[in-house]
Design a protein that fits this description.
With 151 residues, the protein is α+β, with helices and mostly antiparallel strands. The protein contains two helices and nine strands. Strands 1-3-4-9-6-7 form a six-stranded antiparallel sheet, with no helix packed on it. A three-stranded antiparallel sheet has the order 2-5-8, with no helix packed on it.
Length: 151
Amino acid sequence: MVHRASGNWKRPGDSEEHVAGPRIGPTWAEALAHPGAEQCAIGAVFLRSLLWWRLEPAPERAQLDPAPAELWQRPACAVAAGSTWVAYLPRATGRMVLKGIEPLAWIARWLDPRTGATHDAGSVDVSPSHKWRAPEAPSEEDWVLVLTVDG
């Protein structure tokens, strides 16, 4: 008997007898009609607009003020030195503070990961301590803060 991989690659007629639960989910073709599939496409378009291969994880460079009670609410951050900052903010319930920013001509924008729409957040006024307190996100949903060098 040949066993096929199940999960997101499930096809009509695939057996579910070897998996836990009554149903493992939609077929991959059905899943393409779900909102998450469109959001994956938004993420792909966004990453292709950047030099994503230069981004390095830098979680210590982004914090939320006030600090969230839950670990999952902390921001995630990646930096390509001298060109790009990307910070993901789950449930934007505070103000993002970025640390260690080079004093360059940065422009900030909020990316809505649900729709792909962007919202201008203005120029970045880096303090002498190389910190920047971002403006509030447009809503208390998930947002991505993007900084790029102007010019």
